[in-house]
């Protein structure tokens, strides 16, 4: 409504919703633990310490996985999220929770973002502490960071994303098979969450709009600096 220039008090919105019999959707208040640590694997240190702050894109990524129930069994989803813009930059589906699932999500993020030195933060699930995942991180210059086991707040931003997914989609629908679930979640991420879903942490913009605004601001700065250099050269 604000984008349309309509200013209205939240109390009035609440009253109108009650009169129309409309109820808002609330999130779950509990966290589902899907982390199972392999005691033989050595976890990476926690480089984040619950400080989910970044000053630019591709500086800090958070990652996690969850399961989606279908009539044909569970489908598993792994995601990688850019902390600065809240954008889902990598995702992958799988039939089981394996190292290849999280590596595929990481690979997508690496291909689409082409980062420099980025920190990849996750929990200590066996998929992230695996030899295969660690090797892939080293190959691509990714610094791995891991929170503790079973503490959702050590990876709160990823948990918040899954809470939105569950509240807005998973808890409100059921799927006959995994193909239907894949399509629905893909559509939710790429057609709703990244381009439309607003976040208070990025000025109530969607991830895509925030990055677009950032890119425009950076371009203006670059053009200004170039123009200043031309003026200096002309004055000499």
Uncertain ranges: 29-33, 227-236
Do you know the CATH topology? Nucleotidyltransferase, domain 5
* Oligomeric nature of the chains: single chain
* CATH arch. level architecture: 2-Layer Sandwich
What count of domains describes the coordinates?
1
- Widest sheet: strand order? 3-2-1-4-5
- The overall pLDDT average reads 84
Secondary-structure topology with pairs:
Blueprint: H1 10-20, E1 60-70, E2 73-82, E3 88-94, H2 99-113, E4 119-122, H3 126-129, H4 131-139, E5 143-146, H5 156-168, H6 178-193, H7 207-235
Parallel strand pairs: 1-4, 4-5
Antiparallel strand pairs: 1-2, 2-3
Structural commentary:
- This protein has a single domain (36-213), classed as Ribonuclease H-like superfamily/Ribonuclease H (Nucleotidyltransferase, domain 5).
- The chain is 41% helix and 15% strand.
- A hairpin with a 2-residue loop joins strand 1 and strand 2 (73-82).
- The longest helix is centred in the C-terminal third of the chain and has 29 residues, at 207-235.
- The chain is built from seven helices and five strands.
- A five-stranded mixed sheet has the order 3-2-1-4-5, with helices on both faces.
- With 236 residues, the protein is an alpha/beta fold.
- The protein has helices at residues 10-20, 99-113, 126-129, 131-139, 156-168, 178-193, 207-235, and strands at 60-70, 73-82, 88-94, 119-122, 143-146.
- The model is unreliable at 29-33 and 227-236 (pLDDT under 50).
């Amino acid at each position: 409504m604000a984008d349309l220039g309509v200013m209205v008090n939240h109390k009035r919105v609440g009253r109108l919703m009650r009169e129309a019999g409309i109820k808002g959707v609330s999130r779950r208040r509990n966290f589902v633990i899907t982390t199972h640590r392999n005691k033989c694997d050595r976890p990476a240190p926690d480089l984040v310490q619950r400080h989910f702050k970044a000053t630019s894109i591709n500086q800090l990524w958070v990652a996690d996985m969850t399961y989606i129930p279908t009539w044909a069994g569970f489908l598993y989803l792994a995601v990688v999220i850019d902390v600065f813009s809240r954008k889902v930059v990598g995702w992958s589906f799988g039939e089981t929770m394996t190292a290849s699932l999280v590596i595929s999500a990481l690979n997508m993020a690496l291909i689409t973002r082409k980062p420099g030195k980025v920190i990849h933060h996750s929990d200590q699930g066996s998929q992230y502490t695996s030899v295969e995942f660690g090797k892939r991180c080293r190959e691509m210059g990714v610094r791995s960071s891991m929170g503790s086991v079973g503490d959702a707040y050590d990876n709160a931003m990823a948990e918040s994303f899954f809470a939105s997914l569950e509240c807005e989609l998973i808890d409100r629908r059921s799927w006959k098979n995994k193909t239907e679930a894949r399509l629905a979640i893909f559509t939710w991420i790429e057609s709703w969450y990244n381009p439309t879903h607003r976040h208070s942490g990025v000025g109530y913009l969607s991830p895509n709009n925030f990055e677009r605004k950032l890119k425009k601001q950076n371009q203006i700065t670059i053009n200004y600096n170039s123009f200043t250099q031309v003026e200096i050269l002309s004055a000499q």
